Amino acid sequence: MPEKSQPSTQTSRRNLFRVLLATLALICAGCGGQVSVVKNTPPSEKPVVKDATREELLEKFNSTAGSVNSLNATVELKPTAGSKYSGIIEEYHEVKAFLLAARPANIRVIGQAPVIGTTVFDMASDSQEFRVSIPSKNKFLIGPVALERAGSKPIENLRPQHLLDALLWPEIRKQETVLFEEFNDETARYYVLTVLRGGYQTEILRKIWFDRSVLEVARLQSFGPRGILLSDIRFSNWQSVDATKSAPGAPTIASTPNQQFPRSIRIERPHDDYRLDLQIAKITLNDDIPLDRFRLDQPAGSDLIRVGESPEEKHEEKQPNPSAEPHGAKPQGAKQ
Question: Which domains does the chain have, with CATH numbers?
């Protein structure tokens, strides 16, 4: 009996397989013989995908970064403090701002309230120190650029040098190791250049994302030690900038009529727990900006706060000089 049951079982399995194939054939015949639907995309709706090599992208990035030596812009700033991870999101009103930036590390930002034009804040930074004046609170803050200690409120972590990182990019040096890859999602296709930090342990320094529809930088991520994501900056709405005529002999880089610059920039600082949306209304590049326009003195009668010092070291003091400028030299276009 056991010897006769094995062929019977095999025969049953073959018959079941034939029935399944016949059933599948009937289903396909009922669907017109097709098991998939083909949709034709009109040519006008097909996404544009441009090709580029690693070397071409390196040259393009360095050309874009090196073509901007300074900028003078009128912008709209909208800060957002907190995130869904912290559980608290606090949005602030948009502020009209006048912004100056120049290499190697100078930046000045004056924010004014809409309509009335009163100064909400005045910020400046160089390679060593940042300064922030808040007239409404009669505060004047000073701290080192390299300060990593977070403030008690996320909005207090906003620093002028964070904007500088988004506007004036460092070029990729020849000695730096750069990886090259493609990345695709449902909305766009990208090329990604990953710049590595050498030393005892290799780590990611920067990731530069190129939108393949235009081959312009769409995203710039900066990383600190141990892979910490310091900033995630997104760029869009690239437009041409009018040529700038520099004075004869001035050490500036002349803009070209076809030079491109993004009009929309979003800066996210995950560990500082804030986001800053920046819309550029007007911009000129490579003007010869005097250094005194980046100078920000402590307003008379304001409280001096040294950011980053321990409670025992921190002290406040009034600025006794009544002849000091209220908010320092203002960028061109700022209201008095």
Answer: 54-241+255-306 (2.50.20.10)
